[in-house]
Specification:
heterodimer; A: 231 residues; alpha/beta; 27% strand; globular; B: 418 residues; ten-stranded mixed β-sheet; 17% strand; elongated; ABC transporter permease (chain B); transmembrane (chain B)
C-alpha cells in the first residue's frame, strides 16, 4: 500500500500544431491502490490529454510518471507496451472491440499477449470476468451482435483480464444510457473496493463523479480542486 | 513468444478481407507460375540450342594444321651476315596428319580426366552428280566412339549408323547433299578424291545436323575407308577428338596436350565462345522478365496491405492500447504479407510445374533436330528454389514497408480522433 499505483510529477504538455500551446501545466498528484477517482472538467481542459499521458500511450510530455513506483520516462516503446499490457486496463468511450473475434477472444487477447497463463486458463478467467459483468451468455457472439451497453461491458472485461493495477477510462459511460451507466459504475466501484484496483475515470457526468471516492477537477490544464467525496 | 497469437490475428485480418487477399495471392501465383514456366522453357531451349553445337563439339580437338614452321631452317644459321629476305615460303609435301596418333590415343585413353577419345580422318572430296562435281568433306570416324561421345546416332535420320562399320565402302551422306544427288539409303554414289581417284560408296544412312550448310557438304564413312580414299596407311589420322569428364578443364588441358604431343589443340570454350554469350543473354532476359512479374505482384501486395492498414487503424490502435508493441504490429502485418506470398507462391510453384509439363507435351518438330518431338523443357529444381525464395523476398519487402507504417501508428491520434 506504500507505493501509489500511479504518481504524476509536474506533468507538462504542449501541443505544437498549429502553434505551440501549453495544455497541461505541471500536474502533480498520486493515485493509491483501491482508490476510485474521477477526473472532471470542461471540454478542452486537458482531461483526456492527461489520461493518455498517464496511460503511457502518449510519450511527448515533460515531467515524470511513475506506475507502481517505476518511472516511465526512459522506457522504450516495447517496454511501455508491456506495462500497458500488464498494469493498465483501458476502457474507451467507444467500445473498440475487434469485430473479427468473438467476445470471449476479445477479452482473452491481452492475457494471451501477456502469455503468463495457458490458453484454457485464460479462457476460464475470461469467462469469470464476463460473469462479473453479467454477460457470460454472450461470450461466443461477435461484438457487432451486442448492444452498446453490452459492448462496453465486454471492453471492461477485457481491461480486467490481466488484473491490472490501474483501470483507466475515457468517458466509459459517455455513450451509455442511465441504466447501463449505473451498471458500469457499480462494476467500477466493486473493482475498487473488493478487488482493490485503482481507477481513474475521465467523465463529463457530475452524477457519476459525485459517487466516486475522489474528484479531480481540472481547468485550463491545471488541477483546480480536489474533493474527497467518501460516498 | 507471442507468435501463435500474432498469426491468429493475422489470419483473422486476412479472412476479413479475403477477396483482396485472394487477388493478391493470385497475383503471386500468376507471377511464380510464369516465372517457373518461362525459365524452364527458356532453359530447355537453351540446352537444346547449345546441344546442337556443343554436344557435337569435342572438348579438346587435337589436329595438325598446314602452316609454316615458326622457325625456318635459315633462322638457325648463327654465322655472320644473318639477314634473310626469303619470302613466299611454301609448306613441304606433308599432309595434315597427327604423327604417332596411335600412341597419343592410347595415352589419352589412360588419362583419368578424359571420358573418351574419338579419332577422325578428314578428306576433301567431290561428289559426282552426272557431269557435275559438288565439293564435300568426308570424315572417317570410329562410329561407336562417335556415337557414344557425340550422340552421332541421334542425327542419323535414315539407315543404321553401325552399318558404317559392317558394310565395306559405305557412306552416311548429309541429308541435303543426298537430296541434291537424288539418292537414298541403299543407293551408290561416286566420289572423286583430291588425288583424282574415283570411288563408289554405298549409302547406308542419311545424316542431318540441322545446319544446312553442313548437311550439304559433310558426310561420314569409316576410318579405314577414309584412309583408303586418301591412299594413306591405317595410322593416318587428322583429328583426335577428346571428351572430358569436366569440360571446364578444356582450356588448360588443350594447352597441356598441345605441348606434350606437339600438335595444335582447340578447346571448346575458344571454339564456341559465342554460344556461351547467347546462352547467358537468353538466361538473363528470362530472369529479368520473371523478376519483373514478381515485382509487379509485390506492388499488388503492397497496395492491399496499405489499404488493409488504413482500414484497420482502429484495430492497430486497440492492439497497441492493450499492450501490443510497435514491433508486434509490424510482425503481424509482415506475417499477413508472407502468408499471401507463401500460399500464392506455393500454388504458383505447383502451377508452374503443371504449365511446364504442359509445354513439354506440345508437339515441336524442328527440321534441324530429328530427335526432338516436343518443346524442350528443363525441370531444374533450382528454378523452383529461386521462385520460392523470390516470392518470399518480394512479399516480405512488399509487406515490410506498410508494416513499418502500421507499427508507428499513434493510438492516441486514432482513439482521440473519434
Amino acid at each position: 500500500m506504500d507505493t501509489p499505483a500511479l504518481e504524476a510529477r509536474q506533468i507538462t504538455k504542449y501541443f505544437d500544431d498549429p502553434v505551440r500551446v501549453q495544455v497541461l501545466h505541471g500536474l502533480t498528484f498520486a493515485l493509491g491502490r483501491g482508490e476510485f477517482a474521477a477526473v472532471v472538467g470542461k471540454s478542452g481542459c486537458g482531461k483526456s490529454t492527461l489520461l493518455y499521458i498517464l496511460s503511457t500511450m502518449d510519450t511527448m510530455y515533460e515531467g515524470d510518471l511513475l506506475i507502481d513506483g517505476v518511472p516511465m520516462r526512459d522506457k522504450r516503446e516495447a517496454e511501455l507496451a508491456r506495462v500497458r499490457n500488464e498494469k493498465i486496463g483501458f476502457v474507451f468511450q467507444f467500445h473498440y472491440l475487434l469485430n473479427e473475434f468473438s467476445v470471449l477472444r476479445n477479452v482473452m487477447l491481452p492475457a494471451e499477449k501477456l502469455g503468463k497463463l495457458s490458453s484454457p486458463e485464460i479462457e476460464h478467467r475470461a469467462y469469470e470476468k464476463l460473469k462479473i459483468l453479467g454477460i457470460e451468455s454472450e461470450a461466443l457472439k461477435k461484438p457487432n451482435q451486442l448492444s452498446g451497453g453490452q459492448k462496453q461491458r465486454v471492453a471492461i472485461a477485457r481491461a480486467l483480464i490481466n488484473d491490472p493495477l490501474i483501470i483507466m477510462g475515457d468517458e466509459p459511460t459517455g455513450n451509455l444510457d442511465k441504466k447501463n451507466g449505473e451498471v458500469v459504475f457499480d462494476i467500477f466501484k466493486e473493482l475498487a473496493e473488493t478487488y482493490h484496483q485503482a481507477l481513474l475515470i475521465v467523465t463529463h457526468d457530475p452524477e457519476f463523479a459525485a459517487k466516486t471516492h475522489r474528484i479531480i477537477e481540472m481547468e485550463d490544464g491545471r488541477i483546480r480542486n480536489e474533493l474527497a467525496t467518501f460516498s | 513468444m507471442n507468435l501463435p497469437l500474432l498469426y491468429d490475428v493475422a489470419l483473422s485480418l486476412l479472412l476479413a478481407r479475403w477477396r483482396q487477399t485472394l487477388v493478391a495471392a493470385i497475383g503471386v501465383t500468376f507471377s511464380i507460375t510464369m516465372f517457373i514456366a518461362l525459365l524452364s522453357f527458356m532453359s530447355g531451349l537453351n540446352q537444346l540450342l547449345d546441344g546442337l553445337v556443343l554436344n557435337r563439339t569435342p572438348h579438346v580437338r587435337l589436329y595438325n594444321e598446314v602452316k609454316p614452321a615458326p622457325q625456318q631452317p635459315i633462322d638457325r644459321y648463327t654465322g655472320r651476315r644473318q639477314h634473310n629476305f626469303i619470302r613466299s615460303i611454301k609448306p613441304s609435301d606433308e599432309l595434315p596428319r597427327i604423327h604417332n596418333a596411335g600412341a597419343i590415343i592410347a595415352a589419352l585413353r589412360h588419362d583419368p580426366r578424359v571420358r573418351g577419345v574419338a579419332p577422325k580422318t578428314q578428306a576433301q572430296v567431290f561428289y559426282n552428280v552426272g557431269t557435275i562435281d559438288l565439293t564435300g568433306t568426308i570424315s572417317g570416324i570410329e562410329v561407336e566412339q562417335e556415337d557414344r561421345l557425340f550422340a552421332f546416332g541421334d542425327y542419323v535420320v535414315a539407315g543404321n549408323p553401325l552399318n558404317l562399320k559392317t558394310v565395306a565402302n559405305s557412306i552416311i551422306l548429309g541429308k541435303a547433299a543426298a537430296d541434291l544427288m537424288l539418292v537414298g539409303v541403299g543407293d551408290v554414289v561416286q566420289i572423286t578424291t583430291v588425288k583424282g581417284n574415283r570411288v563408289q560408296l554405298k549409302v547406308v544412312g542419311l545424316f542431318q545436323s540441322g545446319l544446312l550448310e553442313v548437311d550439304k557438304v559433310q558426310s561420314y564413312t569409316s576410318l579405314a575407308t577414309a584412309q583408303k580414299l586418301l591412299g594413306e596407311a591405317n595410322n593416318y589420322i587428322t583429328d583426335i577428338q577428346i571428351k572430358l569428364h569436366d569440360f571446364t578443364l578444356a582450356p588448360r588441358l588443350a594447352e597441356e596436350y598441345a605441348q606434350r604431343y606437339e600438335v595444335q589443340a582447340m578447346d571448346i570454350e575458344t571454339a564456341n565462345s559465342d554460344f556461351e554469350t547467347g546462352t547467358t543473354i537468353r538466361t538473363l532476359i528470362s530472369y529479368a522478365v520473371g523478376v519483373t512479374l514478381l515485382i509487379v505482384a509485390g506492388f499488388g501486395i503492397y497496395n492491399i496491405l496499405n489499404m488493409m492498414i488504413y482500414e484497420k487503424m482502429d484495430t492497430i490502435a486497440i492492439l497497441k492500447a492493450i499492450g501490443f508493441a510497435g514491433r508486434d504490429v509490424q510482425r503481424l502485418f509482415v506475417a499477413v504479407a508472407l502468408s499471401i506470398g507463401l500460399s500464392g507462391g506455393g500454388v504458383g510453384l505447383l502451377f508452374g510445374f503443371g504449365l511446364s509439363a504442359l509445354i513439354a507435351r506440345v508437339p515441336f518438330h524442328p527440321a534441324a533436330l530429328p530427335t526432338v518431338h516436343t518443346f524442350p523443357v528443363n525441370f531444374d529444381p533450382l528454378f523452383y528454389g529461386i521462385g520460392a525464395v523470390f516470392s518470399l523476398v518480394t512479399t516480405y519487402l512488399a509487406g515490410y514497408f506498410p508494416a513499418r507504417k502500421a507499427s508507428v501508428v499513434d493510438p492516441v491520434v486514432i482513439i482521440r480522433g473519434k
